[in-house]
Specification:
The protein is an alpha+beta fold. It has 5 helices and 10 strands; from the N terminus they run αααβββββββαββαβ. The strands form 2 sheets. A 7-stranded antiparallel β-sheet has the order 1-2-3-4-5-6-7, covered by helices on one side. It has a 3-stranded antiparallel β-sheet with strand order 8-9-10, with no helix packed on it. The longest helix has about 35 residues. The protein starts with a helix and ends with a strand. It comes from Lepagella muris.
């Protein structure tokens, strides 16, 4: 009788172990799948977890998954990044995401659905602070997260596009170009429409009087349509 009970206990333990194993196995694809990008199921969450670009590499993939788990639980998780600072999700929808990577940098991700059913991912990485002019880097990726030529998707604005100079103005576009040899531009992407908003951010490093002059003709922002 004792031997029978022991075998039955072993059998019960074995069944329990197998049940736990299969339960874990059922959950594993959900987490592993976030790191493995499939073209037919690509989501903005997959992009955030799997994207291999320098800005987001300060966060381990497991940390990115944790950030998403907390977001799903209606909680903002301020995760420690590789620079010993804090990163957190500011917005996350099925097709748009914004992450505060550091106190001076943000990353925006957006799914773009092209003709014939193809999907493109737009990435906007912006660095700037109260003392440093904001400047952005815009990149595009295919559904396997291979980088694409940005020229295929938008035309970089020229300096003149940021100004509205009427006839008889006290300054010419040529003079403005001489004042701004290296323009800095901050971009943001619309969460639900296919355009970028661009702002000229040269005020931080220009001569005060010169900036006061050009600001009379400076457009607060311009829209850049994505192709």
């Amino acid at each position: 009788m004792r031997s029978f009970i022991k075998r039955n206990n072993q059998g019960g333990l074995m069944r329990l172990a197998m049940a736990i194993f299969f339960a874990i196995a059922a959950l594993m694809p959900q987490r592993a799948g976030a790191a493995k990008v499939a073209a037919d199921t690509l989501s903005i969450r997959d992009v955030f977890v799997s994207l291999q670009s320098e800005p987001v590499e300060i966060l381990k993939k497991t940390t990115r998954l944790d950030m998403l788990d907390y977001w799903d639980a209606d909680s903002v998780y301020k995760a420690v990044n590789a620079m010993d600072g804090l990163s957190w999700i500011e917005a996350c929808t099925p097709e748009y995401m914004k992450v505060q990577l550091t106190p001076v940098s943000t990353l925006e991700l957006r799914m773009l659905h092209r003709k014939k059913g193809s999907t493109v991912v737009a990435s906007v990485y912006t660095v700037g602070s109260s003392t440093q002019a904001e400047d952005s880097e815009v990149r595009f990726y295919d559904d396997k997260l291979n980088e694409l030529d940005s020229k295929e998707f938008f035309k970089t604005p020229e300096l003149k596009d940021f100004f509205d100079i009427p006839k008889g103005a006290e300054i010419t576009m040529k003079e403005i170009k001489d004042m701004i040899p290296f323009p800095t531009v901050a971009y943001s992407i619309s969460p639900d429409e296919d355009f970028l908003t661009a702002r000229l951010t040269v005020g931080k490093y220009m001569d005060v009087d010169n900036y006061k002059t050009i600001s009379r003709y400076l457009r607060p922002e311009i829209r850049v349509k994505l192709k």
